[in-house]
Amino acid sequence: MIWTLKKRMYRIQQRTMKTVSGVIPFPVPMLLSGAGSVENLAENIKVRCLKNVLVVTDKVLMDLKLPESLLESLHEHGIKYTIFDDVQPNPTIENVEKGRTLYQKNKCDSIIGFGGGSAMDCAKIIGARVSNPLIPVRWMKGLFRVILPIPPFFCVPTTAGTGSETTVAAVITDPSTHEKFAINDLKLIPKIAVLDPELMVGLPPHITSTTGMDALTHAVEAYIGLNGSKFTDENAKNATRLIFENLEKAYKTGSDLDARTNMALASFYAGSAFTRAYVGYVHAIAHNMGGLYGVPHGLANAVILPYILEFCRKEAENKLADLAVAGGIGTRKETDEDLSVKFIEKIKSMNKNMKIPTYIKELQEKDIPLIAKRALDEAHPDYPVPRIMTLDECEVLVAKLLP
Ligand SMILES: NC(=O)c1ccc[n+]([C@@H]2O[C@H](COP(=O)([O-])OP(=O)(O)OC[C@H]3O[C@@H](n4cnc5c(N)ncnc54)[C@H](O)[C@@H]3O)[C@@H](O)[C@H]2O)c1
Ligand SMILES: [Fe+2]
């Protein structure tokens, strides 16, 4: 009885959020896209009269010299820059604070997030802390807690996965509790997003596959959730089609520029969908795998996605059928039941073809109750999932991920 009431309360809160997200104006970043487009960012920064930018990235990308063409064009346009490259995968509060100190010490006036979701998210929250020095990172957790606007902010994704270049979200880890949490605010959407496929040709196959499956998870969770709109549905379907057509190509042939371009677009579309329509239990559980064990976000999502879809297949049957048709793996002549099963099988086969396991190797049985509790604390009431899970059901599901 109490559970039935609780579920009803969740649904009421989710409907309220749907109404709110339908009326609030989501800023849309200006897009610079195509091979070599990263070189056009500097002139677009210069016209905004900005002179001193903090470039937030990581050491792997610096070693690969990936930011070089951006840095050269900043220099050519007379824009000073400071590099902060201490971002680690699953960025932490410490990473943010170190970047903020550097921004202030060098009197920067703007920020570029250059890298995967980790660099872009860390850059977002460095900006949030620069403008809101009295609000600790932890207090920003949740919705609309970044009070003052962040400095002018630009994103250059080098993975095709998170969609952070168009989302309201930044995901940060608190190492003291091993908790990963999302900060969501319209002020975190960048002014410009650069989708340059040339930056992605050297992305190793295992990162191509897992980040691509993160984008697919965004599209699927946004589409099967209850808070979708015409806009988010179209974006989610386009993203699904592009990912089905291009992810395995990009995985096999990293230098395939067409596949890289399409994956960058897919990631952007999927980001545009989930930032308005939310994610679901796949993300809620994946965040905890990241927080507790440092499992890469995309990998955790890729592994968990088929299990969650099996859990809610019946409730989401017609939507999974839509996605199967949009993804080109079935036709309307088939029943929704068959199409939905086909859709889940397709995800399993993509995982298998790209050597993604069916389990999380770091997962320990003793942690299952904590993971399940934290995942449901994150998901309820915000995530408008098609089938609401009890704690017991969540524990049973997480146990299936044991190695
Ligand atoms: N803000 C959002 O909306 C959002 C959405 C989903 C996930 N996330 C968060 O984003 C983070 C994950 O981001 P990610 O999956 O992009 O991975 P990442 O940024 O952690 O990068 C993974 C690894 O790939 C390397 N790398 C990145 N680009 C490369 C390139 N072009 N060539 C070679 N190596 C490259 C990085 O140096 C890093 O070692 C997680 O913290 C996740 O929670 C954020
Ligand atoms: Fe994600």
- State the domain count: 2
Any idea what the shape is?
A: globular
Can you say what the CATH homologous superfamily of the largest domain is?
Dehydroquinate synthase-like - alpha domain
Record field, number of beta strands: 9
CATH topology of the largest domain: Dehydroquinate synthase-like, alpha domain
Strand order of the largest sheet: 1-9-6-4-2-3
Give the low-confidence spans.
none
State the separation between the terminal residues, measured CA to CA.
Answer: 36 Å
Question: Features of this protein?
Answer:
three-stranded mixed beta sheet; about 400 residues; alpha/beta; 2 domains; binds fe (ii) ion; binds nicotinamide-adenine-dinucleotide; six-stranded parallel beta sheet; Rossmann fold; 15 helices; globular; Dehydroquinate synthase-like, alpha domain
Detailed description of the structure:
The chain has 403 residues and is of the alpha/beta class. The protein folds into two domains: 2-22 and 203-399, Dehydroquinate synthase-like, alpha domain, CATH 1.20.1090.10; 34-200, Rossmann fold. The chain is 53% helix and 11% strand. It contains 15 helices and nine strands. It has helices spanning 2-23, 41-46, 59-63, 68-76, 93-105, 117-131, 205-224, 230-252, 257-277, 281-293, 297-312, 317-326, 336-353, 368-379, 391-399; strands at 30-33, 52-56, 80-84, 110-115, 142-143, 153-157, 169-174, 179-184, 192-195. Helix 7 (205-224) packs parallel to helix 11 (297-312), helix 8 (230-252) packs antiparallel against helix 9 and helix 10 crosses helix 14 (368-379). The longest helix is centred in the middle third of the chain and has 23 residues, at 230-252. It is globular. The two termini are 36 Å apart.
